Fold this sequence. Notes:
alpha+beta, Severin, twelve-stranded mixed beta sheet, ten-stranded mixed beta sheet, globular
Amino acid sequence: MGFRCIKTMRSIYPADGHGMWISYDYTETQQLDDAYSNGTTSNGTVVVDAAFKKVPKSSAGFHIWRIENMNVVALGRNQYGTFYDDDSYVILAASLPGQSATIDSVTREIRGGLLEYHIHFWLGGLTTPDKSGVAAYKTVELDGYLGGCATQHRETQGNESARFRSYFKNGFRVLKSHAEQNGDSLHQIKLYKIKGKRNPVVVQQESVSWKYFNSGDVFVLLTPTIIFVWVGRAANSIEKLHATKIAVQLKSENDNIPLVFVDDGYEQSLQNEQKSEFQKYLPLNQRHVLPSDPEKDEVVEKQFKNNIKLYKCSDNNGKYRVTEIKSGPLLQSDLDSDDVFILDHGLFGIWVWVGKRANDKERTEAMRNARGFVKKKKYANETSVTRVVDGAEPKEFKMLFVSWRQKDSQKAKIITNGAQKNNQKIAITKFDAVLMHERPSLAAETQLLDDGTGTSRIWKIRKNDSVEIGKEKFGNFFSGDCYLIWYSYQSQGQKHILYTWFGLHASDDEMLNTFSKRTEIENELGGQAIKVRVIQGREPPQLLQIFKGKLVIFRGKGTEQDESGRNTKSPTNYLLHVQGSATYNSKATQVNTKSSSLNSNYCFVLKKSKKYFVWSGINSTGDQREMAKHFTGKDFELVLEGKEPQEFWDLLGGKAEYFTTKIAIEENDLKCPRLFHFPNITNHFKIEEVFNFAQSDLTPEDIMLLDAFSTIFIWIGALSTTYNRKNSLEMALEYLRNDPAGRDMNIPIIEVKQGNEPPNFIGFFPNWNTTWWAEHVAFEEMRSQLEGVKIEKKLETTNGNHVENNDFDCYEKYPVKMLKESMEKLPNKVDPLQKELHLTHDDFVFLFKMKYEEFKNLPRWKQQELKKKVGLF
């Protein structure tokens, strides 16, 4: 099967300006074209590479092939996780929907069940166009062999998707070319960079030079006599721990030569022999280390803030036209199975969706045309491109839409992270805390912790103080007020939840005072309470359970009360809209006392003086009716829709039109939980999703966000910084603001702390281990064991980064010689009046004979005198 040459077409915009023509001029798309044009024999049989035929079609498992001499060669399992930067690879991950595939997955046949296929072609940074073309070509071929329903991903070195990285829980390596590796002597000098917050990537650098160094990473230098682990001061704990494990492995592979740790800025503190060996390859007089990797951070920020757009694709006389349909948020109904669509999420990735009834040419050229779209939009060549098929969409694609409902014919048994579901409702008759502790998956599913029979205290927050509410008024809230609810219950000891409830018309001052009151009580409880932010209308099940389904929200402010708060008066005449059919999902909200407020899908309670009516809509259920009765007195009149007495209409001011259409209750398939890591909470919003997450992804130094669809959890690690903790709520709100699906900003946000996780959080993590963190070996501990001494901390922690002084170490560092140059020769980032801030710790101590902390406390005249003396003024 040969490769044919395609002439480059010129890209032109149509005259009407409503679309764009797509053209292609690179080898990869030529090979894709060949794959589709020549992928069948004359009798219609699909051509399949012999290497792929060894994989049973109906089997779950994980496989990797490398392109060698334009052929597909299967890798042995001992090679999984090692890639070469001059090669291209094809990766297949096959699993049951909702389950995960990793490099440790065992190939097993699946009978009678649907499989979810993901095919990735990974392109090394130095791979050739021919190799990348064959990888793309073979991806199409493998997809055809599996039935044409696989999700295809284009991956490039350094820009791998979260799903790709999830296959390698311990990270993966990217090494220099095979030719170089095969010619290595036993102790060739090598420099490795370890980068990555969750699944670290080890990348062999092209040479050994300071130009690759920055303080946000960890580097391993392999020399003939010593292995050096250079620890960037801003590197995260996962990178440092992973780098140490890599160094230990290299040590065993290289005659157990010594392993030495080098702290960023403390190179001069090495012992003489160690420093001499280090300087052979990295001369300290040439040291230049950037403070971080700002370009990467900037890209992440831009990625998330790009608005999503939907384009429709069509073929017009051999030219491919892409027309913009709409901007987000997107609906599933925006897609049409007769066509092909492109979802443009900017630098965050391009998706091409292929409708099941799209014509053959549109289906076969979808991936190629998506790559042409990237080129036309002038996006970077490494922009991720993913092709999905109608009916086999992965969850990360569905999450780009406001809602998603899988068609009945395509539904299958789904295994979620925490529990198995068969699209059936769970029948619950018992809610005690013991059951929820024993079955956390049930707690996660229902978002309940107990039956609500614990102890409650409630405060109404005023502008300047708070007033505790008497029990006789529990559950009577007002939309113009704020409340603090303290709930305590027994579950392996006393547990506490602090709810802050904000009415839709509450003032900012009262909201701030509510948080202040919560902090006061939290401190009394030793900081171990679960904190829940609740906005009117989005009350979580557990809060409704506390009020036994009798929570009622009146309009306005509850101002008619004495200083004790016990005499708050509720309205005497009102109409309540009752929602829910059980104690954990029922509440009532005051609406206009007019007929137009009625709705045939619900029950309503009308009160006039001492008389109650329960109006039951024709589409409401018996359970709804029973819950509505809880909002009446002993005497009430049940009124069925269509049989109302005239008195009822008179009290509502006469008959009027109201909503009567039956609401179809559809299951939303976007309820699968997602875990996110926020590398560091700063002015710039950055986020990384953790695929196939487990408890081990919750590291003590971090703050994580678990999106459970109807609830957001913030998990706070024990070693996370004070700054990040204080800003964690704003982090969650920023996440909701930036969600391309246009999420509700008012959903409950629950804050939990490491070691104090409730069952409704634990249930999302399989095989939860209560002793996990006690068994966890941190970087400092592992380093101490390897060095054989107890290390005294030279560095304090500031904003999650190890630094001696934030005012000093946050600046870019330069050699002394460079800083002594004239003003016009200084680097742009150097302040001529504060050159000393650009010295490394070692150089500063050598020049000034003191640490920066001591220097900073000197009078200004003394500082200037010392700077003149050392030639930095």
